[in-house]
Amino acid sequence: MCISNKMPALASLFSLLSLRGLLPPMALLLETVFILLFTFFTEYEDPAVMKNIAQTDLYTEFQDVNVMVILGFGFLATFLVRYGFSGSGFSLLVAALSVQWALLLDGFLFAFRHGKIRVGVRSLATANVCAASALISMGAVLGKTNPVQLMVMALLEVTGFMTHRWILHIFLSDHPTQDHPIQPIMLLHVFGAFFGLMVSWVLNRPGLEHRHEKDRTDRRTGLFATVGALFLWMFWPSFNSVLLDHEDKLTAVSSTYLSLATSTVASFLVSAVTSPRGKMNMIHIQNASLAGGVAVGVAISVADVPWVAMVIGLSAGLVSSLGFRYLKPHLQVVFKCHDTCGVLSVHGLPGILGWAFFILIRTLSPPNAQRGPSRLGNSPGQFSFILLVTLSLSLSLGALTGLLMKWSLWRAPQDRKCFDDQAYWEFQHLAERK
Amino acid sequence: MCISNKMPALASLFSLLSLRGLLPPMALLLETVFILLFTFFTEYEDPAVMKNIAQTDLYTEFQDVNVMVILGFGFLATFLVRYGFSGSGFSLLVAALSVQWALLLDGFLFAFRHGKIRVGVRSLATANVCAASALISMGAVLGKTNPVQLMVMALLEVTGFMTHRWILHIFLSDHPTQDHPIQPIMLLHVFGAFFGLMVSWVLNRPGLEHRHEKDRTDRRTGLFATVGALFLWMFWPSFNSVLLDHEDKLTAVSSTYLSLATSTVASFLVSAVTSPRGKMNMIHIQNASLAGGVAVGVAISVADVPWVAMVIGLSAGLVSSLGFRYLKPHLQVVFKCHDTCGVLSVHGLPGILGWAFFILIRTLSPPNAQRGPSRLGNSPGQFSFILLVTLSLSLSLGALTGLLMKWSLWRAPQDRKCFDDQAYWEFQHLAERK
Amino acid sequence: MCISNKMPALASLFSLLSLRGLLPPMALLLETVFILLFTFFTEYEDPAVMKNIAQTDLYTEFQDVNVMVILGFGFLATFLVRYGFSGSGFSLLVAALSVQWALLLDGFLFAFRHGKIRVGVRSLATANVCAASALISMGAVLGKTNPVQLMVMALLEVTGFMTHRWILHIFLSDHPTQDHPIQPIMLLHVFGAFFGLMVSWVLNRPGLEHRHEKDRTDRRTGLFATVGALFLWMFWPSFNSVLLDHEDKLTAVSSTYLSLATSTVASFLVSAVTSPRGKMNMIHIQNASLAGGVAVGVAISVADVPWVAMVIGLSAGLVSSLGFRYLKPHLQVVFKCHDTCGVLSVHGLPGILGWAFFILIRTLSPPNAQRGPSRLGNSPGQFSFILLVTLSLSLSLGALTGLLMKWSLWRAPQDRKCFDDQAYWEFQHLAERK
């Protein structure tokens, strides 16, 4: 609102436009820009090079991550009773755009050599992992934003996340061409969650302060969301291992699996014990089961015995389901921040918990020189500082993005049209019958 | 009808038979014949041989293609509001039969050595790709045919497609044992789509000329179809790369991914801009998103820089969603050709577009001697001739198949029972209640 | 009931407890014990070792098996009209616990060296395969038991199954450290099915003797169950090959695929021919299609030409769908044994059929010294004896487990609350509206 007041002429011009006047030109503009950038700055990786680096491993894992980004996040977002088309459809749109943009940014910032970015399965995997952060943020504002707002948010989020990675990269490594000391997987859950929460807080408006009657799940959409949740569960081991070196990959797979198994049990435990009649809540199970994957992903380089991964998973499952039961309702009432998919409890808190474990274990048992991101030094303070940087950047960039998205130009959905597919999708028979 | 008039005695004999009298004997006969043929003419590939040829790659990709054929096409076909069991169930039946038949035909025509066909992951992958053409054709007649008609159509389609490949193989390669110069993936979309459309045109009957009230989607079946569409989307990179040589595989994966990403954005763009109120149509998104995979699959050998794949994907997405919005309704009214799943727009037009790009790029930059199907020569005329052959064969074989399927022996469903599972499936409680 | 009578004081104490008083403490206790055992007795496999043994193959196949266990079995169990959350949710809980327990037991019994179990992708794959036996048993009692009973059953089932494997291992191999002569895959379907049937028989109570009105499927849940069934179908080749040596893997993949294809056709055939009006039953298709995978899995080491796998698949499909049509109703009426998911027809009978084929083929063509489990000798009697041991152990351990589960402490659901999610899950809006 603050921005639109400053340019009333422009705003009144654009206010004539419906979604039809916004989405198509924006999509066309973005694709034109992307294709031009790809034309001048990219080429495929040389197949001969790829042959040597055990690309097959990577291809399999890329496919798994691809499944998580396209199907997993998308269908986890179908839990709302009347928002299934939007949940899965807009996720697909956001993922398609974010991956293209992440490919370019990752190339420019980290792998720009001789004026070219090399596009291959490896860079696609990195771009997919980074695009996931945009899908996480999207979870916080789902149902209350239109697809154009989501596109804007996703592009800014990916830009912010890549810049954040680049800043850490510059400050933490001695030589800019060195491998990243901090894996993107350690940052993306915390960054994505708090970015999204901040956007949601800025976008909050009086009409949405009470629980919206369509902001709920039912038997049907609950099962569709379970499909999404299980695909995230099943392929999380690949997500946590795809960007690691071959040696560490298989240990990461086992750690992630064990952590997911224990956080699943923890989610059932908490969901039953915190309900007056011992009934479980499917939304808790769908989401808190995944918290183990989030937390252990952050601490993957220090989880070198199975029980550590299991303890991390159990704690993450407990924290996450407690967050769903007690924190999510209060967040809305006290902080005026509505978190549709509960990204604070699925990604935010377990991500911070993973950092806590990471710092704790690194402090207790410093790594030897050969393994792990030892260039960072071992001081807990240095790691805590990185976490603080991540939190501050995500909150401040989220606030800026939220302000931009509040601009009336974007024509956010009216309160009564929130959480409803009918605002965006044609339903064949409805039109004919009525 | 024309055939049944010629043999009234036979027709009246068979007209006593319901589906119960047709499907089981036909299934039994086919399986008996298949098992006999497998007994005399097949053996497993020698595992020792397979060890050397990086079979692991192939196994992963075979699984991906398997997912597309069994789940992807099947669930994309569940979009009809009361035809979900038939869409997924008949697809499974047709796939199971077509793959067995394609294994045999592919072996007899292309890999018959010392009286034996070698069955292995490689031949299963080829058979799956070819069986996909039958599933494409099925999309045009879905809801208006019974499973026996679909079985007949699938077997004839696979036979026609294999014969078509064999004709090209004989005419285009100098030595019959040489590798195929034209990949099956370049032919199957165009062949499958126009074969199916021709069948649908021949089967057209007055009772189906108006839009059938059950020929629509809803919230529930729309989401099931989205599951199918997303699985096709995610594993299309494997579909386009599975039959290529190891060197070209990974480039094909990246090209297909980029093409799908841009066609997805294009489908949202067109769906929103062509709707009076800027609303999108889920059917357009589900289908036109995949058009990029179709088009780039045809041109995969010439898409050697990323932006080419993106331009192909964007154009294919535009053409496909425009086809859904404007061509599909007219096709029914003007040409009396009802296309249930819109295969013209998903496979037909994008396939032709892919050929246009292929011919254009080959003309502009002729390949050097080492790479690609250079035995074909580089003349655009020669490629256009191949496309013409594909179109003519698919249309003429489709017409013949349609005539055969029109035979009253098969007892096609009555108009009012079209697009309805109740004609073919037991519903437990309905029987008990009523 | 017999047990609870003996300790009335304890029972009356616990009878105050609802599910809320049982599930959380039990989950907490189990996870504490598991984590302690993992702490003292496990370590990750050395990545350097794993590098040499073509781990990539294994990783891909592990993921496929993971998909079957987490999604496949879980969603196949969503077919009940009001039990979808429980079907998929409890499967996830049971799988998460069973895999942890199977990892430990498999390690202690078969790979305990220098006081440590090595956890890696290989042991996770084995644990997943063994956990599948618990999910099979669960199918027999689904809807009539609460999650605590299921947890108890799963842990005892896995314990029984592992002990069974260990007994065979000790008696059949000359040196205890030798490779297992009988693959777990040959035992688990028969063991799981008859264990579950026996539990169901013991738990039978008068109130459930008539068909429960919620014990049925509908259009919506039928499609969800189809998703599960198709994922089992697609990844069954990996399930049957994951624990084999590299040489035998790819032949096993082809055999399983061909067997599934023929059993699919057989299931359509039988379902149509046994229905008065030629209508098919989706439950038959979903389940009997998979029978080929079960049967060929048992006989995988003797299916060395394609037609054998196809004949096994066809027979298994016939037996399984006949079992669904005629045996399942009689089992309930005559033997007072209600089999919710029809595990007798999907796993029990096809498993025995697979053994029959295995014994028959081994008798007709004894293997040469190098290949297969030749240490067993070739006598049909010896194999029949193994099958008998499997059957006796599964039935007797199932009976004991059933007696334990009958204890009123566990508070099995009341008759009218069976097959209903509302007994276990919160439904947001129901509470608010009413």
- Count of the separate structural domains of chain A: 1
Return the CATH class of chain A.
Mainly Alpha
CATH architecture of chain A, please?
Orthogonal Bundle
This entry's quaternary arrangement is homotrimer
Instruction: Characterize the biggest β-sheet of chain A.
Output: 2 strands, parallel
Order of helices and strands of chain A: HHHEHHHEHHHHHHHHHH
As laid out across the biggest beta sheet of chain A, the strand order is: 1-2
The largest inter-chain interface, given as chain pair and residues per side, is: A-C, 60 and 62 residues
Radius of gyration of chain A: 21 Å
Number of strands of chain A: 2
Overall pLDDT metric of chain A: 88
CATH superfamily of chain A: Ammonium transporter AmtB like domains
Q: Give the end-to-end Cα distance of chain A, rounded to a whole number of Å.
A: 36 Å
Keywords (chains A, B, C): Membrane, Transmembrane, Transmembrane helix
GO molecular function, one term (chains A, B, C): ammonium channel activity
Membrane topology (chains A, B, C): Multi-pass membrane protein
Family (chains A, B, C): Belongs to the ammonium transporter (TC 2.A.49) family. Rh subfamily.
Which structural traits does this protein have?
homotrimer, 434 residues, mainly alpha, Ammonium transporter fold, two-stranded parallel ribbon, 2 strands, disordered N terminus, disordered C terminus, membrane (chains A, B, C), ammonium channel activity (chains A, B, C), Ammonium transporter AmtB-like domain-containing protein (chains A, B, C), Ammonium/urea_transptr (chains A, B, C), transmembrane (chains A, B, C)
